[in-house]
Amino acid sequence: MVHADASAFPSGITKREAYAQLLEQARSLFEGQRNWVWYNLPIPPSFPLTLIPSFHPTHAHSELTTETARSNLANAASLLWHMYASLPSPSSAVNWAGFYVLDPSSPQRQQLILGPFHGRPACTTIPFTRGVCGAAASTRTTQLVPDVERFPGHVACDGATRSEVVVPILNAGTCVAVLDVDCAVAAGFDGVDVEGLEGLARVLGEGCDF
Ligand code: SME
């Protein structure tokens, strides 16, 4: 099977069936691939460190990594995007699907940084103290938000978003990233979404080296 076929969701399937296919395709795409997005490549001494997104003056040169690849999180964002597009409303109104990951340059590691996604450009950093993503990361629990305007501190990256679900991705009990899906319709997500997305978050948490 060519990789692009993994995102072909047949029309007329139920949301539960779609999530089952998503998990199956995700497992198969992630096989033999444990990088979520970074390769831990040594950086040559001559490389200008300020060009590295994770650069922080307190880091030793040997601690730094360079971003070179898109892998499991990028493929997962693609699968989610195509799955929602193939489902009826409200799922078809999903306008953002992607990831925020623990910011390696944040001294206390209490900040998220934008990871792979599908949708419009979004805020690049979110502290643990802000927004739905911050709440999911700091409490390590799924946040199902039927009306974003009623969520104190919601970070509005796209004014069209009306509802949102954010699931923490845990690795050995630590939140290493969050999976965020937004919808342009209020109450766009239900328990089936939570169950499906938590399943994907488990596959990613266990299947990637963060
Ligand atoms: N709404 C999120 C921010 C991320 S964007 O929606 C893509 C939040 O409140 O954390």
Automatic annotation (TrEMBL):
It holds the Pfam family GAF. Residues 65-204 form the GAF domain. One of its GO terms (cellular component) is cytosol. GO terms for molecular function: L-methionine-(R)-S-oxide reductase activity. Gene3D superfamilies: 3.30.450.40. Coiled coil: none annotated. Signal peptide: none annotated. InterPro entries: GAF, GAF-like_dom_sf, Phosphatase_reg/MetRdx. It comes from the Eukaryota. Belongs to the free Met sulfoxide reductase family. PANTHER family: FREE METHIONINE-R-SULFOXIDE REDUCTASE (PTHR21021:SF15), GAF/PUTATIVE CYTOSKELETAL PROTEIN (PTHR21021). This is GAF domain-containing protein. It comes from Cryomyces minteri.
